[in-house]
Amino acid sequence: MNWPNIEGLEMISSPALLVDPQRISTNIDQMIQIAGDDFKERLRPHLKTHKMSKVTQLQIDKGINKFKSATISETKMAAQLQAKDILLAYQPVGPNINKLGKLIDNFPDSSFATIVDNIESVKRIASEIGNISNPVRLFIDINCGMNRTGISFNDRLLDPLREWIEKEPRVTFSGLHIYDGHLHQPELKNRRGSVIKINNSIKDYINLKTIPEIVVGGSPTFGLWAELTNWSLSPGTVLLWDQGYAKAFPDLGFSIAACLLTRVISRPGKDLICVDLGHKSVAAENPLHDRVFFPHLHDYEIIGQSEEHLVIKTQHSEEYEPGQVLLGFPKHICPTVALHNQVSVINGDITSSETWEVNARDRV
Question: Nearest CA to 302 among 325, 322, 324, 331?
């Protein structure tokens, strides 16, 4: 989990997000190994974690050419790299329907799809951007227990929704999208049991039906789905990994490939240091004590955070002078990346002058 001592960090302004391309490459290789020999057809990695063309290109260079996105911006980023197949796994509403239509028109070499969970959305997509000569590809979004979006297998509207899609010539039924993001059991046995339960529900539904493609599996579970099925897999966090997943899922073994650089800016009182790592630099949705982990600090407690400040209590405060660099691992890397315009590239234990733009961090 710990990164080595890195030369040249004094040249990087703080706060900053650092990435290690070699660790990212290793994570991609492991993702491919888990997916198996037919990874080019099975893997549909999510772009929402890294939001970077550079990381997307690393995957394309290794033969991955199908992706999943959460925003129009992420979708466009993949299209600009000539990705073969892009699934916008976020039901478009309002102006985003026409924005998806413009991507379909402007990037004819990429095949686009999106998800739906109600007939009204299908009608709007068909009427606003549907085309008989090039129907919009639609996946039905299945609620497998996360209760965030989707329609359950037991919902009486599921079959009428599919029937409506299949009868409408301006759209086409492309499969099922089934995200199990609520499965966070640290014990592999318990996680496996939950996946098997969802898998049985899917098999019960598809026994008498033909499904062109089934997309399953977030980062904690995609390896289990790889063992149990031949369906498409959509991990995301595995590209960069983070402190939260590394702690919760030690069985997965991915490497943390992104790290925060911060500096001590003040020692405001006894046993206190303040660093420049506020809400605007690290994801703040977790409890205060659990937002970032400092491997080189000992016996510390995070006691306060505001927009640009993070206050830490430690009996070793006298060891930390203003300007001193600290490295921290965020609990949740995905929303942390979205707070940074660019990342600084680290090559092993040496700082480089290279930066990568987080070019899909904006929604449009």
Answer: 331
CATH code for position 291: 2.40.37.20
Q: What is the pLDDT of residue 4?
A: 80
Tens digit of pLDDT for each residue in 31-45? 999 999 999 999 999
Does 351 lie in the same domain as 221?
no
Pick the closest to residue 44 from 218, 205, 292 (CA basis): 218
Buried b (16+ CB within 10 A) or exposed e, 144-167: bbeeebbbebeeeebeebbebbee
Q: Are residues 39 and 128 in the same domain?
A: yes
Q: Using the structure block, give the residue that is written with the tokens 């129907």.
A: 135
According to DSSP H, which parts of the chain are helical? 21-35, 39-42, 53-61, 72-80, 96-106, 119-129, 158-167, 188-206, 222-228, 243-248, 333-337
Structural domain includes residue 248: no
- List, for residues 321-358, the tens digit of each pLDDT value: 999 999 999 999 999 999 999 999 999 899 999 999 99
Handedness of CA 282, 283, 287, 293 (dihedral sign): negative
315 and 327 co-located in one domain: yes
Distance CA 54, CA 312 (A): 34
Residue 307, pLDDT above cutoff 90: yes
The string of DSSP codes covering 322-349 is TT-EEEEEES-HHHHHTT-SEEEEEETT
Nearby residues of 105 by Cβ (< 8 Å), 6 or more positions away: none
- The count of other CB atoms within 10 Å of the CB of residue 12 is 18
Q: Which percentage of the chain shows pLDDT scores above 90?
A: 95
Residues 232 and 275 in one domain: no
Do 218 and 74 fall within a single domain?
Answer: yes
**Residues facing 178 on adjacent strands:** 142, 216
